[in-house]
Amino acid sequence: MTPDHEQLIANTLQLAHARAVEWLGSMAIPLGKNPPTYTAEMMWNSPLGRDLVAIANYVEGYPPPQEGIPALLNRTARSLFGHTLSPQGFRRPKDFHKQPLGQLFYAAFARFIPKEQLMRTHEVQKLFGVKRQTVYDWAEDDILIPYYIDGTMMFVRSQVEQFHARWLRKKQHRQQRGGVTQRS
After folding, report:
1. What CATH class does 113-184 carry?
2. What is the predicted pLDDT for the residue at 33?
3. Which terminus, N or C, of the chain has the lesser number of Cβ atoms within 10 Å?
4. DSSP class per residue in the chain
C-alpha cells in the first residue's frame, strides 16, 4: 500500500472513531468503568478499516474483493456518511470528489465501471431537454448520483435511463391531467 493511502486510511479511521465516540456520548451509552483504549491496530482491524484497505488495494491494482466494489463502496460510505435516522441512506459531503478520500472512492469506481456506461452532464442535459443547471441541481439533490471521473462529473447510463423513464411517465401524466409540463 502506498504511504499516501496508508495515511489517508489512518486519518479517516481516527475521524470515524471520533464521530462514534461523540455519537455514543450524546446517546449516553455507558462504555463501562474502565473501557479499553481503542488502539490504531483495533481501528485497522475494524470492518471500516478493512473496507478502506480493500478500496485502496483495488485502486492500486489488486483484484476486487469477493463481494464486489459497489457493495464495498456503499457500505463504507454508509459507515462514514450515514443518515442517523435512515437504515440505508447516506449523503456525501459537499465537494467530496475534491477531498483525498473522495478521490480514492471515485478512482475505485472509475476502475470498476467502463467509460461507455457513463454519461457526461451535457448528454444528460440533451436527453432530458433541460438546462445544465437542472442536471447540477439533480446531482446536488441526489436525484441523479454524480460520479467524478478524472474530475469530470459523470452519471451511470442505466441510472439516468431509469430516472428518464420515470420522469417521462410523470410528464405524460401531467399532460393528461392538463397540468404544466414545462419544467427545466
Report:
1. mainly alpha
2. 75
3. C
4. --HHHHHHHHHHHHHHHHHHHHHHHHTT----SSPPP--HHHHHTSHHHHHHHHHHHHHTTPPPPTT-HHHHHHHHHHHHHB-TT-SS-B-PPTTGGGSHHHHHHHHHHHHHS-GGGEEEHHHHHHHHT--HHHHHHHHHTTSS--EEETTEEEEEHHHHHHHHHHHHHHHHHHHHTT------
Could you report the per-residue pLDDT of 121-148, keeping only the tens digit for each?
A: 999 999 999 999 999 999 998 899 999 9
pLDDT per residue over 96-110, tens digit each? Answer: 999 999 999 999 999
The span from the CA of 123 to the CA of 144, in Å, is 13
For residues 155 and 146, is the Cβ–Cβ distance under 8 A? yes
Q: Where are the domains positioned within the chain?
A: 1-112, 113-184
CA distance 143 to 130: 15
d(CA 82, CA 89) in angstroms, rounded, equals 6
Burial of 108 (0-12, 13-18, 19+ CB in 10 A): buried
Residue type, 17: H
Whether the pLDDT of residue 6 is over 60: the answer is: yes
